[in-house]
Amino acid sequence: MARRELRGPSPERRTFVTDPLSGQSAELRRIQPHAARKAYRCPGCNQEISPGTGHVVVVPLADPAHRRHWHTPCFARGTPGPGQWL
Ligand SMILES: [Zn+2]
Q: For 26-52, what is each residue's pLDDT tens digit?
């Protein structure tokens, strides 16, 4: 049976998605507000993700160096079947 973790994602729980930018398989990582210490540019809306904002990171499996940080709602809009990865 799968273990349910209601208080937050456990480190071993991985989510895989299709990167909207490259169309390649990627791992989705959720960044908690306390872990967001830098500002990033969201490719979905071209706006800044302010430090302290919870968001997601899309890490292409074949090219992890090209990870992109997205606002959570922006990524949901750009992904087929939004919600299945939340
Ligand atoms: Zn955005």
A: 999 999 999 999 999 999 999 999 999
Residue 54 belongs to some domain of the structure: yes
pTM here?
A: 0.78
Q: How far away, in angstroms, is 31 Cα from ligand 1 center?
A: 14
CA of 62 to the centre of ligand 1 (A): 24
CA distance 54 to 72: 8
Count of domains in the chain?
1
- The answer to whether residue 6 is domain-embedded is no
Token digits of residue 11:
């480190």
Q: Nearest-5° angle of CA 51, CA 52, CA 58?
A: 75
Q: Which residue range is the domain that position 68 belongs to?
A: 15-77
The answer to whether the beta carbons of residues 16 and 27 sit under 8 Å apart is: yes
- Span from the CA of 73 to the centroid of ligand 1 (angstroms): 7
